[in-house]
């Protein structure tokens, strides 16, 4: 049985349409709905709803909290998947990588970040695809911190968001 600890932090993947004013907001977490649509008979996923905010309002204190929760699971040998807003996911991923680098036991576990450019529940959303790919990545990757997005996996130190084209690019 493959075990994964999934930490939700908010971002577009968790946004919902608010019909009263036409806005998109982080309201009720959506990740359990996403997971219910997948067939994962040999995967045990624990979900930790840590926060549900837009990554543009995320502070260093939020990032430290995420890093602490990832470290707690990684030192137990459990792969970790973190859902996160795309605007600052790389910044948070780097904080997590720096934290894990100080703990050799955590360095052997894959930590995979993912998110979505379009909210789950909106036609054409990439949320389910990215979540599925990130879950698969937790099975296949060696220890380290990564971003799984749109059919690609990037080491967190070698990726940046291309806002103009709504995608992530590898950097060297």
TrEMBL record:
One Pfam assignment: Asparaginase
Residue ranges annotated for the L-asparaginase N-terminal domain, each copy included: 3-164
Active-site residue numbers: 12
Disulfide bond recorded as keyword: no
The name this protein goes by in its record: L-asparaginase/GlutRNAGln amidotransferase subunit D
Chain sites annotated for binding substrate: 55, 86-87
Matches recorded under PANTHER family: 60 KDA LYSOPHOSPHOLIPASE, L-ASPARAGINASE
PROSITE patterns: ASN_GLN_ASE_3 (PS51732)
InterPro entries linked to this entry: Asp/glu_Ase-like_sf, Asparaginase/glutaminase-like, L-asparaginase_N, L-asparaginase_N_sf
GO function term, MF aspect, one: asparaginase activity
Keywords of the record: Transferase
């Amino acid at each position: 049985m493959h075990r994964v600890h999934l930490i939700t932090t908010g971002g577009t993947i968790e946004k919902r349409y608010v019909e009263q004013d036409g806005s998109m907001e982080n309201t009720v977490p959506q990740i359990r709905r996403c997971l219910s649509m997948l067939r994962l008979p040999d995967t045990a996923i624990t979900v930790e709803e840590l926060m549900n905010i837009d990554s543009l309002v995320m502070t260093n204190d939020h990032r430290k909290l995420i890093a602490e929760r990832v470290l707690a699971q990684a030192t137990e040998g459990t792969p970790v998947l973190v859902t996160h807003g795309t605007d600052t996911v790389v910044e948070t991923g780097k904080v997590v990588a720096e934290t894990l680098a100080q703990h050799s036991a955590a360095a052997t576990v894959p930590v995979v970040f993912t998110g979505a450019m379009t909210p789950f529940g909106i036609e054409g959303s990439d949320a389910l695809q990215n979540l599925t790919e990130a879950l698969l990545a937790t099975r296949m990757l060696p220890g380290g911190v990564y971003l799984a997005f749109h059919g690609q996996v990037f080491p967190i130190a070698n990726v940046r968001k291309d806002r103009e084209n709504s995608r992530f690019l590898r950097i060297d």
